[in-house]
TrEMBL record:
GO terms for molecular function: metallochaperone activity; nickel cation binding; zinc ion binding. Zn(2+) binds at C73, C76, C89, C92. It comes from the Bacteria. Ni(2+) binds at H2. NCBIfam families: hypA. Keywords: Metal-binding, Nickel, Zinc. GO terms for biological process: protein maturation. Involved in the maturation of [NiFe] hydrogenases. Required for nickel insertion into the metal center of the hydrogenase. Belongs to the HypA/HybF family. This is Hydrogenase maturation factor HypA. Gene3D superfamilies: 3.30.2320.80.
């Protein structure tokens, strides 16, 4: 489960931000996760609770904002929303899609004490 390692990275980001901005407690961590990122939101929530224990984010709520997958269809020249890789263009049925968004995962905001 790579979500555990991802959560460890999130805690590192939060702790670095705490040192930079001088705060001591995080109440909420809000993440943006792209639909094509291969991250399972429910697994992230479970992993986050375990990784955050005894850190600055102990007891913090993890909020996840899911972002859609977007691709450019080379056949019909349209920007289209896709739920998964390797699916056809919803407009024309072509498989010639170039992913343009939805692969990312980022810490969007922190609510601090």
């Amino acid at each position: 489960m790579h979500e555990m390692a991802l959560c460890e990275g999130i805690i590192e980001i939060v702790e670095e931000e705490a040192r930079r901005r001088s705060f001591s407690k995080v109440k909420t961590v809000c993440l943006e996760i792209g639909a094509l990122s291969y991250v399972v939101p429910e697994a992230m929530k479970l992993s986050f609770a375990a990784v955050a224990a005894r850190t600055i984010a102990d007891g913090a709520v993890l909020k996840i904002v899911e972002q859609p997958g977007l691709a450019w269809c080379m056949a019909c020249s349209a920007s289209v929303e896709i739920a998964r890789r390797c699916e056809p263009c919803p407009r024309c049925g072509s498989y010639q899609l170039q992913v343009t968004a939805g692969e990312e995962m980022r810490v969007k905001e922190l609510e601090i004490d």
